[in-house]
TrEMBL record:
PROSITE patterns: HTH_ARSR_2 (PS50987). It holds the Pfam family HTH_20. Residues 4-98 form the HTH arsR-type domain. It comes from Nocardioides conyzicola. It comes from the Bacteria. This is Helix-turn-helix domain-containing protein. InterPro entries: ArsR-like_HTH, HTH_ArsR_DNA-bd_dom, WH-like_DNA-bd_sf, WH_DNA-bd_sf. Coiled coil: none annotated.
């Protein structure tokens, strides 16, 4: 059984601010690719664990993601349907843009 922490989807300004950071945007892209709950460690690789925790908190407080504990391990999941229901097309449009490399 999973334990879940869920917030309401924040204001459009909160959602866009959460997605404006390149590290958080990459985390969201990885969650989207995963298609379900993903262990936190799979969602970042260029920041420390404490910095990643900070980024996860910002995403969660904006209502973009939710955190759950599965088998004693913390997972993150993208709330695509909830965000799209609140702000149609916003998150899907952002995710459709290919990252510059």
């Amino acid at each position: 059984m999973a334990e879940t922490e869920r917030a309401e989807v924040g204001s459009l300004q909160d959602v866009l601010a959460a997605l404006s950071d390149p590290v958080r945007l990459e985390m969201v892209r990885r969650m989207y690719a995963e298609g379900g709950p993903a262990p936190c460690a799979q969602l970042y690789d260029e920041v420390s664990k404490s910095t990643a925790s900070h980024h996860f908190k910002i995403l969660r407080e904006a209502g973009v993601t939710e955190r759950s504990v599965i088998g004693g391990q913390t997972h993150q999941e993208l709330r695509l349907e909830d965000v799209e229901k609140t702000y149609p097309g916003v998150l899907s449009s952002i995710l459709a843009v290919r990252p510059a490399r």
